[in-house]
Amino acid sequence: MRRREFIQAVTAAAAAYGIPCAHGEQNKEGIVAAVPWYRRTYRWAQTNITEIDPARYDIAWWRQHWERTQIQGVIINAGGIFAYYPSKFPLHYRPAALGDRDLYGELAHAAHEDDLVVLARMDSNRAHEAFYQASYPDWFAVDASGKPYRAGELYVSCINGPYYEQYLPDVLREIIERSHPEGITDNSWSGLGRDNICYCRHCARRFRERTGKPLPQKHDWSDPAYREWIQWSYARRLEIWDLNNRVTKAAGGADCLWLGMNSGSISGQSRSFRDYKEICARTEIIMLDHQSRSDSEGFQHNALTGKLIHGLLGWDKLIPESMPMYQMGRPTFRLASKPEPEARMWMLAGFAGGIQPWWHHISAYHEDRRMYRTAEPVLRWHRANEQYLVNRRPVANVGVVWSQRNTDFYGRDNADELVEQPWRGFTQALIRARIPYLPVHVDHIEREAANLAVLILPHLAAMSDEQVRAVQRFAERGGAVIATGETSLCNEWGDPRPDFALAVLFGVRGGKPRHRPGDRRGGGTQHTYLRLTPELRGRVYGPKAGNEPPITAERHPVLAGFDETDILPFGGTLSPLTVSEKAKVLLTFIPSFPMFPPETAWMREPRTSIPGLILNESGRGHIVYLPADIDRRFAVDNLPDHGDLLANLVRWAARGNLPLKVTGRGLIDCEIYQQPGRMILHVVNLTSAGTWRAPVHELIPVGPFQVRVHPPQGMQPKTLKMLVSRENKGTIAENGWIQFEIKSILDHEVVVLES
């Protein structure tokens, strides 16, 4: 970025950061100094250096590419597994092609000359055999027999030993003294993961000092020592975070930050002992290592990830995300270009969730040069519209509650099935229904309550007493609550309670976990159904048997759209519950019966009293309890009936009080935000030839869409502009709603409504 453009960008950041701006170049230079780099660096780049790159790194070409892609910051390999500068530490491994060259220093100097922020990249939890053999073997993690843990040919360092306490801090100081980067980032900073226990003398000593116990001998979630090891391991990673920041700030100043890197997966964070809530409380920026989608999650997962992290970090802070230009995911080809539509859509979905772009290449030289064309148009669009993409707050009033502790102590070794599938199913139903929502950490319910009409608790089984009380207080104030599955059936350790902690709120008694926490359910989708109440088939087109139940009433609004069926496919299992007299049961369980041969496919027990859906309207708010885990089933089976039912429940619980209504054909993700005097609507087109299987090959346009937006109180938008199609329109106001049309969307559209 040229100097003039750099100053303009910082001036815009200063306005958002609350720093008064006056005219004159001298004042603008002052603004640059006043706004810290971690608040004004919106676009990033990384060329991950390989061992052979020092002999072929074309710095002049990459500087040109930095300018073409409008980036403001670079991540440059410095040290750790490989040193790309002449380190004074003899065991700090340098590639043979480096010789005495200071490649990292040359790149850092060039970036600073171009007014770019520099983060020195580390990769610190492994070392080569020469380091292991020549130094101190007890710096490295070992199993119960004393055998060192290895990752390929490398040795895994122990997070409790001198490697982390002494050696790495010295390396950080050396890098900062040599090149003065703005900060340090680290790809693998958190040491050995949860799947392995280190039994080195440092771990044994520290654990005994903290707990008075020996290290656990095996993975056993019911063992108090193992649970303490989990908590102790989390605490140690936070100690390392704090230690490294003390080192970098002492060496480089108050804004020289150590930032690690973090995952976009809560299960991934759990397996690495990275407490997202506590990390976000400590940092000014999250460097997000979340590079691709899975077939089960789709592009929309990137927007969800951005919203979830902003909910912890704050919406005034930045979340740059590593976005690979090479084929990442399944399969991975490090040196081949990712199909352009796949890379583009991952980036754009991230923008919708408040994520900032960071293009990423492996190697400084490629024979597949298609990847060099992918980032430029997207980042240039981002540069032109950056004022609308940062420093904003979401307008959504539906909160989906999550907890990393639920992932740990209820999900345990089966978190995908027990925790992530219900979350994924419910959030996908909201996206499909175009209902804006926010991830809400369970400890932040009180903080967010004033802005929410509905709280959704998808299988939030492990809850503390205080977390339970927060949900109860939300309902007492008139908020609606939707809970599914085993929500509140366990305490914060995942141990079963005698009944639901929220039994009174749900209007039920007799809840028992159907499986132990962490157990695998197995069996796949079962041949079970749910019966709707009342039954209406007697008046619906179709053959008559003469024993159709009489029609005694009309159905509840949550069953809208199911008028021509008395049953819904289910796929799960249910247990009996005692339901309060004031609660309504709208779905009941039909047990499994044979599917094959087809002559045997008839219901052995067509009716039971086992509830699948319960509404409790006895308090101030609408309360929904779904014993039937429709959210998990939707994630697994993708049946539209399940998605429609979940969306109906949210609309009813919200009493129609939702800020956005969009009609038109296609699968789209709608995210809505506000800034002073304006509203911003992102619409991301998820309809493609590869919607559920990566990588996508081509983009398919959708539209038109009729949009209705309900602005916050006191805001009266008068003008409308579309940042992708570049249309400017007037708006139609009717009964408090702003109405307009989006004619067509190829990849995304961003609509700005201004007063």
Question: How many angstroms separate the termini?
Answer: 32 Å
Mean of residue pLDDT? 94
Give the uncertain stretches in residue-range form.
19-26
Under the CATH scheme, the architecture of the domain at 398-524 and 574-588 and 610-653 is: 3-Layer(aba) Sandwich
The description of the largest β-sheet is: 9 strands, mixed
Percent helix among the residues?
25-40%
Radius of gyration: 28 Å
**Global structural class:** alpha/beta
The CATH class of the domain at 398-524 and 574-588 and 610-653 is identified as Alpha Beta
Dominant shape: globular
* Number of contiguous helices: 21
Give the CATH superfamily of the domain at 398-524 and 574-588 and 610-653: Class I glutamine amidotransferase (GATase) domain
Q: Oligomerization state of this entry?
A: single chain
Strand order of the largest sheet: 15-14-16-17-24-23-22-19-20
What does this 3D model show about the protein?
The protein is of the alpha/beta class and 755 residues long. Among the domains are: 1-35, no CATH class; 398-524 and 574-588 and 610-653, Rossmann fold; 660-754, Golgi alpha-mannosidase II (Immunoglobulin-like). Helices cover 31% and strands 20% of the residues. It has 21 helices and 33 strands. The strands form seven sheets. The protein has a nine-stranded mixed beta sheet, sandwiched between helices. A seven-stranded parallel beta sheet has the order 8-7-3-2-1-12-9. Strands 13-26-27-33-29-30 form a six-stranded antiparallel beta sheet, covered by helices on one side. Strand 31 (732-734) and strand 32 form a beta hairpin. Helix 15 (404-411) packs across helix 16 and helix 16 crosses helix 20. The longest helix is centred in the N-terminal third of the chain and has 29 residues, at 224-252. The model is unreliable at 19-26 (pLDDT under 50).
